[in-house]
């Protein structure tokens, strides 16, 4: 009877201590936990709480001792491997840390084989992250998202991991989701601010830094950065990136891309009216995913003014006969490595990496998915970027084009040069054609008109590298009005 009362007292001490830990009163909690531990040295909850308490007050040797004991008592509790590994790193015990992290990864994976659960995925992601295995961490978090799309911790971790991978726009997107679920945690605001800072959008960075500091003032490095940005803004005014970010869509202009450098994300556009040139920055391109322009692209844009001169903003790439968008189907995709392969319509196989998928949240593909993408040359050969699900009509075309003919209208004609453009009915693509060939196929028609309704087949013809030029063939004139 006395033993039962003693154990009940230990449980009461533990509950009281946990409340103090959650209130960040670790020193006060420690006294209760020591007393509870003296009563029952084999209660896993008490041992784990004592380890956490020692870690919070900075007594790493004691924390290590208690986490080792906690793992002996409950080896299936995967979170402990992460904390113990961190403590070993902080104590400069690299070998011990690597050993415990490896064991933790193994334990997580074995546990997930039996029953996938979100907490274990998050534990595994944390271990990967602490070992600078940020891609493995992100891919693990995708699996957690599939189980629960409303878990704040998953989004907060994605925010941090995308930042570590220098994927700043993705970091901001996931931070906003985390903040919607929990607006009291300073870390989501912190990483959103750091991402805006990396994008050189200082006004937004300051907004998020201020909110992070309001929630947790004990961030001296962040406070220093915050104050430095304010000082620089007062001296230099808005950055080019800020001008682009906050720009409005005013009068529209058209022009041709003179050149664009993918490495530094800048170039110039030559205006049609007058031939003058304006600077272009990749952030101004209205496109999800990889923002780039091709030399010769026809574009529509507004113009704003920066200290360095005129800049193009709100840039839209206009449709052309030279389509950069290619369609295909997913041949395979490895969710553990985040890589796969797409077979294009011309049967060319290209690699795809999960970061090239434009959707937010879980970035993954299923075998057989119909997708559209752009192809760029990389060190590993041609690779798909800006990968997104194909429109329903495109997906059907990839699957079965029936008689291999499309409907469309003649958009433009130059009879003197025997060249024209047909636009597919849904605006999915344009194809060049020779009016002379069309007339030969339709002997009852003496002259073609702009706007004529036609049915036509398509073949690819050689063009510039990375471009897919479609040519209309076997043209059947339906109406010539």
UniProtKB/TrEMBL annotation:
<dbReference type="InterPro" id="IPR050181">
    <property type="entry name" value="Cold_shock_domain"/>
</dbReference>
<dbReference type="GO" id="GO:0003676">
    <property type="term" value="F:nucleic acid binding"/>
</dbReference>
<dbReference type="InterPro" id="IPR019734">
    <property type="entry name" value="TPR_rpt"/>
</dbReference>
<feature type="repeat" description="TPR">
    <location>
        <begin position="186"/>
        <end position="219"/>
    </location>
</feature>
<dbReference type="InterPro" id="IPR011129">
    <property type="entry name" value="CSD"/>
</dbReference>
<feature type="domain" description="CSD">
    <location>
        <begin position="325"/>
        <end position="389"/>
    </location>
</feature>
<dbReference type="Pfam" id="PF00313">
    <property type="entry name" value="CSD"/>
</dbReference>
<feature type="domain" description="CSD">
    <location>
        <begin position="252"/>
        <end position="317"/>
    </location>
</feature>
<dbReference type="InterPro" id="IPR002059">
    <property type="entry name" value="CSP_DNA-bd"/>
</dbReference>
<keyword id="KW-0802">TPR repeat</keyword>
<protein>
    <recommendedName>
        <fullName>CSD domain-containing protein</fullName>
    </recommendedName>
</protein>
<dbReference type="InterPro" id="IPR012340">
    <property type="entry name" value="NA-bd_OB-fold"/>
</dbReference>
<dbReference type="InterPro" id="IPR011990">
    <property type="entry name" value="TPR-like_helical_dom_sf"/>
</dbReference>
<dbReference type="Pfam" id="PF14559">
    <property type="entry name" value="TPR_19"/>
</dbReference>
<feature type="repeat" description="TPR">
    <location>
        <begin position="44"/>
        <end position="77"/>
    </location>
</feature>
């Amino acid at each position: 009877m006395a033993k039962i009362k003693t154990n009940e007292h230990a449980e009461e001490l533990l509950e009281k201590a946990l409340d103090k830990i959650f209130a960040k009163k670790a020193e006060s909690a420690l006294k209760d936990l020591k007393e509870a531990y003296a009563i029952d040295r084999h209660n896993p909850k008490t041992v784990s709480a004592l380890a956490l308490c020692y870690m919070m007050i900075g007594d790493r040797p004691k924390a290590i001792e208690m986490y080792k004991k906690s793992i002996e008592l409950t080896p299936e509790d995967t979170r402990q491997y992460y904390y113990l590994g961190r403590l070993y790193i902080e104590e400069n015990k690299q070998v011990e840390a690597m050993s415990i992290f490896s064991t933790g990864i193994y334990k997580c994976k074995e546990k997930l084989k039996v029953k996938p659960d979100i907490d274990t995925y998050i534990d595994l992601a944390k271990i990967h992250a602490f070992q600078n295995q940020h891609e493995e961490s992100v891919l693990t978090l995708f699996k957690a998202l599939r189980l629960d799309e409303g878990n704040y911790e998953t989004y907060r971790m994605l925010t941090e991991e995308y930042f570590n991978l220098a994927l700043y726009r993705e970091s901001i997107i996931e931070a906003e989701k985390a903040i919607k679920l929990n607006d009291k945690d300073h870390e989501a605001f912190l990483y959103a601010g750091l991402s805006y800072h990396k994008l050189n959008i200082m006004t937004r960075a300051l907004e998020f830094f201020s909110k992070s500091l309001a929630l947790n003032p004990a961030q001296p490095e962040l406070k220093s950065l915050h104050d430095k940005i304010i000082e620089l803004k007062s001296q230099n005014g808005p950055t080019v990136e800020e001008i682009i970010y906050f720009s409005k869509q005013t009068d529209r202009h058209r022009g041709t891309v003179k050149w664009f450098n993918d490495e530094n994300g800048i170039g110039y556009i030559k205006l049609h009216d007058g031939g003058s040139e304006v600077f272009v920055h990749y952030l101004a391109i209205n496109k999800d995913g990889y923002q780039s322009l091709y030399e010769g692209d026809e574009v529509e844009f507004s113009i704003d003014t920066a200290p360095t001169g005129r800049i193009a903003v709100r840039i839209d790439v206009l449709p052309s006969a030279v389509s950069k968008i290619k369609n295909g189907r997913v041949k395979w995709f490895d969710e553990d490595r985040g890589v796969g392969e797409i077979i294009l319509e011309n049967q060319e196989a290209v690699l795809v990496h999960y970061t090239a998928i434009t959707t937010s949240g879980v970035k993954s593909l299923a075998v057989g998915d119909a997708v559209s993408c752009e192809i760029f040359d990389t060190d590993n050969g041609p690779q798909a970027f800006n990968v997104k699900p194909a429109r329903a009509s495109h997906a059907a075309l990839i699957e079965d084009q029936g008689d291999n003919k499309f409907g469309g209208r003649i958009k433009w004609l130059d009879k003197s040069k025997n060249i024209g453009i047909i636009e597919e009915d849904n605006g999915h693509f344009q194809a060049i054609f020779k009016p002379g060939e069309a007339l030969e196929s339709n002997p009852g028609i003496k002259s073609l008109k702009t706007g004529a309704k036609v049915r036509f087949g398509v073949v690819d013809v050689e063009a510039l590298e990375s471009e897919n030029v479609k040519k209309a063939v076997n043209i059947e004139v339906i109406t010539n009005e």
